[in-house]
Specification:
heterodimer; A: 190 residues; B: 527 residues; 6-stranded mixed beta sheet; 5-stranded antiparallel beta sheet; 15% strand
Chain lengths: 190, 527
C-alpha cells in the first residue's frame, strides 16, 4: 500500500485530509466570533477586534485589510457599509489575526509542559465503498507531544506546512499511517 | 473412582434439605465478611450470577446447597465469634470417611472431587498442609502452629494467625455436618494455603479520590464547610473527567471523546438548540376526580445519576435508513411517534410536543415506546422509524463511574456529610450538562450522550408514573426530570428516603374543591 493515497475517493470513500481536520479542530478551539460578518453585530465585533490597538491595526493590514483609517472609521460609525468583497477581507483578516493571537496560548495548552495531548483519529467513511473494496481501518489514538510546527503552520495559514507537520506526527501510528491520511474527524481537547 | 465413592456421593446428595438463612441474611453475611460474589462462587464451583440468584431469594438444591449452607454457617460463626473455637463445631455422627479429615485449608480454597479426598490421608500430599507431630512457631505470627506448608510451619486458618489464643487439637476435631460439605471443603489445590493467597481480605480498594478531594479541600479551608464546598464544586468537572478516566482503566471500550457529529446534533447557532427531542415530561392531569385531594409532590433522588446507566453509543454514529431497531446499537432516531390515547391519566411518553410529524428522538425514548407498544403492555402502536444515527452500544460504559459516585453519595448520606454530597452532586450533574458542546468541558464532546442520559432520566420518570398508576395511585403531574405528583397511598409503592431508589417528599398540598363548587376545580398553583 502506498503511503500517500493516489486517487482518493475512486471507490467511494469519503473523508477529508488529516491536516484539514486538525485545522478545523484548532479553529473550533480558537473560538471565533459566532455571529457572521454579514450581520451588523458580527461586523462590528470583528472591526473592534482589528482596530482596538495600533498593533492590531498593523496585524490587520498585514493580513490583507488594506483600507484607510478613514474608511474603517466610517464602517465603525455606520455611515458607510463595506462591500461584499471587503466583508470577505474583514473576515479573513479577523481569522488570521485571531489565530496568530491565540496560537501562543493554544500551543502551551496542547503541549501541556511536555505531556502532550491525546488525539483521536476517526478513520475515513467507507459506507459508499462496495464491500469487496472495503478495508478494516480502525479508530486510533495518538499522543502528540510537540505541537509547535502544527500550531505555527495553522496560525500562518500555510496548508502545505500544516500537512507536512501533521504527517510528521502521524507516521508514529506505524506502518499503517497512510490509511489515516484521509479521515472523517480528528478530535482533541485543549 | 471406586463404586463405593459413587454411592457415597449419591447418598450425600440425598440428604434432606439443609436449612438456609433468609435471602437478605445470606447477602449480609457475605458482605460483612468482605467476600465478593466471585470469591464465593469460585469456592462453591458455581457462577457469580448463581450466587446473586441465591441472594435474591432463589434456593440452591443438592450438594451445592449443603456447601452453601456450610459456608453461611461458617460465616455466621466467624462473624459472631471472631475467634472460632473447636467447641462451636458440633461433632457429627455419620462421616463417610473413617479416618480423621485432612487439615483445614484456607476458606476460599476451591473444591475438587470428593473421591480424591476420601481416600487421602492427612499428610499424603507434601504441599497440602502437613500436620506436625509437635507444634512449632508459625513463620507468620510466631505462635505455635500444628501444620507446615512446604516445610514452613504456619497456621492454615488466617484467623488463627491473628493475635489471639493459639488453637489446640485442630487435627483431632471431628468433621462437622454436613459431611459432603466438609469433604468438599477439606480438599485444597496444592499451594493454595500459602499465606499470601489464602487470606480472605477485603477486596483491595484504591484510595478513594472523592474522599481524598474532600479531605484536602476541608484541610485547605481549615474546616470552613462553605468555602470547601464552593472550592469542590468549582473543580467538579475536571475531577469527574479524571474519575471517568480512572474508571475506564482496563475497560473493554475506550471512551471516544471527539467523534464526528452529524448535523442534527449540532447547535444551529451559538445559543440555539439542536434537533433532538429529549421527551422532557411536562404534564398535568387534565381532569381530576371530584372532591378535595391531598397531593404529594415526590422528588426522585439523583435522577441523572441513575440515568448514567443507559445504552450509550460507543463510537462514531453511523447513518442507517430503515424501519428496524437493532437492540445492540444506540443513538438517535427519526421516528413518527404513535398517537397516545391515555393522556387522561398518564403522560405521553414523548412529552408534550405540539408539532405533528416525525421527530428525532433518542434511544431511551425509542426503547420506552417500543416497550409500551409490545404485547405485554400494549399501550400504543409501535413507532415508525425512518432513519437513525447509531453506533454499537453498551450499558456499562459509565457503570463503574456511576457506582463510585453512588457509593460516595450513599456514604455521605449515612454520615450526614453535606460537603461530599454537594461535591458528588456537582460532579454528576455538571458531567452530564457539559459533556456536549460545552466550553467548560472540552475533554468530552458527546452531545449524543448528553441527550441520551437526559432522555433516560425522563424515561425513568415516566416509568415511575406508570408504576404509580398501575398501583392505583392517581398521577397528577409529571414534570421535568424528577417531579411526580400523586394522590393516594404512595409509601406503599415508593419507599421514602434519600437513596437513588427511593423518593423524597417535596411538598404536600390540597387540590380540587368540594363537589358543590365545580368552577374552582382543576390544578391549583402549588407553592
Amino acid at each position: 500500500m502506498p503511503e500517500r493515497t493516489i486517487d482518493f475517493g475512486k471507490y467511494g470513500a469519503q473523508g477529508i485530509k488529516g491536516f484539514e481536520a486538525v485545522a478545523r479542530q484548532l479553529d473550533a478551539l480558537a473560538d471565533f466570533i459566532a455571529s457572521p460578518v454579514t450581520t451588523r453585530r458580527g461586523l462590528l465585533a470583528r472591526l473592534h477586534y482589528l482596530t482596538r490597538t495600533s498593533r492590531a491595526r498593523a496585524a490587520a493590514r498585514e493580513a490583507g485589510l488594506t483600507v484607510t483609517d478613514r474608511t474603517l472609521k466610517a464602517w465603525l460609525a455606520g455611515t458607510r457599509n463595506p462591500t461584499k468583497r471587503n466583508l470577505t477581507r474583514i473576515d479573513t483578516a479577523y481569522r488570521a489575526v485571531r489565530r496568530q493571537n491565540v496560537a501562543r496560548y493554544l500551543l502551551a495548552r496542547l503541549n501541556r509542559e511536555g505531556r502532550g495531548t491525546r488525539v483521536e483519529i476517526h478513520p475515513l467513511n467507507q459506507s459508499g465503498v462496495r464491500p469487496p473494496h472495503q478495508r478494516v481501518v480502525e479508530f486510533r489514538t495518538l499522543n502528540i507531544r510537540r505541537w509547535g510546527a502544527i500550531v505555527e503552520a495553522w496560525a500562518a495559514g500555510d496548508d502545505q506546512a500544516l500537512d507536512d507537520a501533521w504527517i510528521e506526527q502521524i507516521v508514529d501510528l506505524g506502518s499503517q499511517w497512510g490509511q489515516y491520511e484521509y479521515v472523517t474527524n480528528v478530535g482533541f481537547a485543549a | 473412582m471406586s463404586d463405593f465413592d459413587a454411592i457415597d456421593s449419591l447418598l450425600a446428595s440425598l440428604t434432606p434439605h439443609t436449612p438456609l438463612p433468609e435471602a437478605p441474611v445470606r447477602r449480609d453475611l457475605r458482605e460483612r465478611a468482605g467476600l465478593s460474589k466471585a470469591q464465593v462462587a469460585r469456592a462453591l464451583g458455581v457462577s457469580p450470577s448463581t450466587v446473586t440468584g441465591w441472594e435474591a431469594g432463589r434456593d440452591p438444591v443438592g450438594e451445592v446447597r449443603a456447601k452453601y449452607a456450610y459456608l453461611l454457617d461458617g460465616l455466621a460463626d466467624k462473624l459472631t465469634h471472631p475467634v472460632p473455637s473447636p467447641a462451636n463445631e458440633a461433632p457429627s455422627a455419620p462421616s463417610a470417611t473413617p479416618e480423621a479429615p485432612p487439615p483445614e485449608p484456607a476458606p476460599d480454597a476451591g473444591p475438587t472431587s470428593d473421591a480424591e479426598t476420601s481416600v487421602r490421608t492427612p499428610g499424603a500430599h507434601p504441599d497440602d498442609g502437613d500436620a506436625l507431630a509437635e507444634p512449632q512457631p508459625c513463620v507468620l505470627c510466631g505462635r505455635p502452629a500444628h501444620h507446615q506448608v512446604a516445610g514452613f510451619p504456619q497456621h492454615l486458618d488466617p484467623t488463627q494467625c491473628a493475635p489471639a489464643e493459639p488453637q489446640a487439637s485442630r487435627t483431632t476435631t471431628p468433621a462437622p455436618t454436613p459431611p459432603a460439605a466438609r469433604r468438599a471443603r477439606a480438599t485444597s489445590p496444592t499451594g493454595r494455603a500459602t499465606p499470601h493467597t489464602g487470606t480472605p481480605s477485603r477486596p483491595r480498594s484504591s484510595p478513594d479520590p472523592i474522599a481524598a478531594a474532600v479531605t484536602d479541600a476541608l484541610a485547605t479551608h481549615e474546616g470552613d464547610v462553605e468555602a470547601a464546598t464552593a472550592a469542590l464544586v468549582k473543580r467538579a468537572i475536571p475531577d469527574a473527567m479524571a474519575l471517568l478516566d480512572s474508571c475506564r482503566k482496563g475497560g473493554r471500550y475506550a471512551i471516544v471523546a471527539h467523534p464526528w457529529i452529524p448535523d442534527i446534533l449540532r447547535k444551529q447557532s451559538a445559543r440555539g438548540a439542536d434537533q433532538i427531542w429529549e421527551a422532557r415530561p411536562k404534564w398535568f392531569r387534565p381532569e381530576l376526580p371530584p372532591g378535595v385531594h391531598e397531593v404529594t409532590a415526590l422528588d426522585i433522588n439523583g435522577a441523572y445519576l441513575s440515568a448514567l446507566k443507559t445504552h450509550l453509543p460507543i463510537g462514531q454514529l453511523e447513518h442507517t435508513i430503515g424501519t428496524t431497531h437493532d437492540r445492540r446499537r444506540a443513538g438517535v432516531h427519526l421516528i413518527t411517534p404513535p398517537p397516545w390515547e391515555h393522556g387522561a391519566y398518564l403522560p405521553n411518553p414523548i412529552g408534550n410536543r405540539d408539532e405533528p410529524g416525525p421527530l428525532w428522538v433518542t434511544e431511551p425514548t425509542l426503547r420506552l415506546l417500543l416497550r409500551l407498544s409490545g404485547p405485554k403492555l400494549g399501550l400504543c402502536e409501535p413507532p415508525e422509524i425512518h432513519e437513525s444515527f447509531t453506533s454499537g452500544a453498551t450499558e456499562n460504559l459509565l457503570e463503574k463511574f456511576r457506582v463510585i459516585l453512588k457509593d460516595a453519595r450513599d456514604r455521605a448520606i449515612a454520615q450526614e456529610d453535606e460537603v461530599t454530597l454537594e461535591y458528588v452532586k456537582a460532579m454528576y450533574s455538571k458531567f452530564v450538562s457539559t459533556m456536549g458542546e460545552s466550553n467548560y468541558n472540552r475533554e468530552l464532546y458527546r452531545p449524543d450522550w448528553m441527550h441520551l442520559i437526559r432522555s433516560q432520566a425522563f424515561a425513568n420518570l415516566w416509568t415511575k408514573a406508570l408504576k404509580a398508576h398501575d398501583a392505583g395511585l392517581t398521577v397528577v403531574r409529571a414534570m421535568g426530570t424528577d417531579e411526580l405528583h400523586v394522590i393516594g397511598d404512595w409509601p406503599k409503592v415508593f419507599p421514602e428516603g434519600r437513596g437513588v431508589s427511593e423518593v423524597k417528599v417535596k411538598d404536600v398540598y390540597p387540590i380540587g374543591s368540594e363537589p358543590t363548587d365545580p368552577a374552582a376545580a382543576g390544578p391549583i398553583d402549588e407553592n
